[in-house]
Amino acid sequence: MENGAVVGVNYESKTTSTITIKGILSLLMASVGENYDDSKRVISLGMGDPTIYTCFHTTSVAEEAVADTLQSHKFHGYAPTAGLLQARNAIAEYLSRDLPYQLSSDDVFITCGCTQAIDVSIAMLARPGANILLPRPGFPLYELSAAFRHVEVRHYDLLPEKNWEADLDAIEALADKNTVALVIINPGNPCGNIAETAKRVGTIVIADEVYGHLAFGANPFVPMGVFGSIVPVLTLGSLSKRWIVPGWRLGWFVTNDPSGTYRKPKVVEVIKKYFDLLGGPATFIQAAVPRIISQTEDIFFQKTIDNLKHTLDICCQEIDDIPCISCPYKPEGSMAMMVKLNVSLLEDISDDIDFSFKLAKEESVIILPGTAVGLKDWLRITFAADQSALREVQSSAAPKSLDRVPQMALLKASLSKILLYSNRARFVPSFSPLTYFSLPPMHSFTISASFSTEHKPQSRWRPMCLYHTQGKCTMMDDLTHLEKFNHDCSRELQVNTSDLNKICSQNLDFFLVLDLEGKVEILEFPVLMISAKTMQVEDIFHRFVRPTKMSEQRINEYIEGKYGKFGVDRVWHDTAIPFQEVIQQFEAWLTQHQLWMGGELNRAAFVTCGNWDLKTKVPQQCEVSRMKLPPYFMEWINLKDAYLNFYSRRATGMTTMMRELKIPMYGSHHLGIDDTKNIARVLQHMLVDGALIQITARRNPKSLADVNFLFKNRIR
């Protein structure tokens, strides 16, 4: 799908005027090479290939299925030109799950990726005088294929102010008796309206659904084939995006036509004969399709969706800090987003192409100019990148030690570079500079992935084994498990010893960073013990909490909604214990570290992001669990108040503090253990910047409901 082409307004039927997206990306890479600095990591957010990022990989079922068919020695020969029957049956069954009718193998033709399916669809419809309606923005490969087939291209707009809905009035105005097809990219348009419009103008629909099911907004993915009884639909798709295997080149061309137009003998014969000219994907990959489709578990798809949602959130947060770029509509699917470039705010930048080439040359960051997909002065940014940047790029030149990081596109790093470049490109004088660039100077501080020679850098961020944090991991001798999950929280929060002389003397020896989860009752109780002198993680206490006032059915629904999206609902069910038991174990943990001897905490204080955890939630939970409020919950540090008083600016939450301090977020927001570690990173950063971290809130011992807030200047 990345093999599309740019077609100028005056050249829509001239193949010599086209250039592929890969061609543009190659030119951008060549621009990087003109004055390449090997201290800079080339970061690409231009190509929609998620496999180059470590957090996107296919399921082991798919890999094993392909390996088994190859090693079986049964599929070394040619496949039928329409594809292996078992693969066609599997695809028909897979697509029929979402349709009101059943497809058969006769409706399915295997193609070499969705790219070949596009070319087949246009070749089948081409005739003298024909025209085709294409969306703008869209995939330019349609223009290139149409140009080769001498099919006139007519563009209808997708309207950004209406969430990129198709301009249906434009479609009706553009269509005539020679219109052979209306192309849509789905998910992305209200399919029912498209079908009715296509029926009125007397044409069929080509539904490009290579991103099918990669929808994560309020509206679920609806295949265009659902409306096949209204208008004939040609569905184009592949394994590439949903199974994250674009290099396998396994696609399909499917006729969704319950009325039987495409089942007429002459039509079927023409399609089959055309496929006789083509070569499909490798036979052994086709043979693996039935197992790949039938045995892939839903949790694999959900994890991909969760990763995309998270990286999209990061992308949108970072774009908010780039004044010359805006996103009129947050995507609800796929892997890329369109953002508007405001050229008027930049000097010496003529358009989106100029911006993209100068960004590549000066910052080694590759993004696709919007002109490549039909929109001038827009940019296309791929957000299917690693959700955890190993390092926030603070300047145009990264340190030499960055070479020790595995080759990958770093999402936050690249957007930070765009921000730095756009700032250097100089805003016109009448434009007020971002507050982002007028913050008080902060020390350069390396967290999580330390590049100091004293620490071995991590190859990639890995989620914590949540069985291990609760002392219940039984797979410590399983190398695959150890590679997949982190079992040492202290490694994620390593610091450079050179930063220790920047810390001012604290009134405490230890900070107990805590972030509770659960609105009705507490569901998760994580605490990190951080040394005030070394900033190192001394120990971790983590327990999942089982509610006491909820029915089992309600608990299951609650946990599925809360933790199912993170893929940790099973570990919650396996390990959760009542709050009273959690407190007993926590007190034993405190005693073990000599932080509590029966009264208030000794040489330590809780650190929270807000007052809710200890002011409100713990007392509520104690009342529900019919127990007294433990005496060590009498005082705490609200990091938001400490942040406000030290930096003299308000931060309403953890993500704001991290963004302003340029700290990359790791893990899943609202998973308690991950939020606790991210809050700890903010604390570490403040300590290095020289902050004195003091108690901000204290209960009245005579009236526990009364809390005295000790900072006059505080977040309310």
TrEMBL record:
<dbReference type="InterPro" id="IPR047201">
    <property type="entry name" value="ERI-1_3'hExo-like"/>
</dbReference>
<dbReference type="GO" id="GO:0000175">
    <property type="term" value="F:3'-5'-RNA exonuclease activity"/>
</dbReference>
<feature type="domain" description="Exonuclease">
    <location>
        <begin position="510"/>
        <end position="692"/>
    </location>
</feature>
<keyword id="KW-0808">Transferase</keyword>
<dbReference type="Pfam" id="PF00929">
    <property type="entry name" value="RNase_T"/>
</dbReference>
<dbReference type="InterPro" id="IPR005958">
    <property type="entry name" value="TyrNic_aminoTrfase"/>
</dbReference>
<dbReference type="GO" id="GO:0030170">
    <property type="term" value="F:pyridoxal phosphate binding"/>
</dbReference>
<dbReference type="InterPro" id="IPR015421">
    <property type="entry name" value="PyrdxlP-dep_Trfase_major"/>
</dbReference>
<dbReference type="InterPro" id="IPR015422">
    <property type="entry name" value="PyrdxlP-dep_Trfase_small"/>
</dbReference>
<dbReference type="InterPro" id="IPR013520">
    <property type="entry name" value="Ribonucl_H"/>
</dbReference>
<dbReference type="GO" id="GO:0004838">
    <property type="term" value="F:L-tyrosine-2-oxoglutarate transaminase activity"/>
</dbReference>
<dbReference type="InterPro" id="IPR015424">
    <property type="entry name" value="PyrdxlP-dep_Trfase"/>
</dbReference>
<dbReference type="InterPro" id="IPR036397">
    <property type="entry name" value="RNaseH_sf"/>
</dbReference>
<dbReference type="GO" id="GO:0003676">
    <property type="term" value="F:nucleic acid binding"/>
</dbReference>
<dbReference type="GO" id="GO:0006572">
    <property type="term" value="P:L-tyrosine catabolic process"/>
</dbReference>
<dbReference type="Pfam" id="PF00155">
    <property type="entry name" value="Aminotran_1_2"/>
</dbReference>
<dbReference type="InterPro" id="IPR004839">
    <property type="entry name" value="Aminotransferase_I/II_large"/>
</dbReference>
<keyword id="KW-0032">Aminotransferase</keyword>
<comment type="similarity">
    <text>Belongs to the class-I pyridoxal-phosphate-dependent aminotransferase family.</text>
</comment>
<keyword id="KW-0663">Pyridoxal phosphate</keyword>
<dbReference type="InterPro" id="IPR012337">
    <property type="entry name" value="RNaseH-like_sf"/>
</dbReference>
<protein>
    <recommendedName>
        <fullName>Exonuclease domain-containing protein</fullName>
    </recommendedName>
</protein>
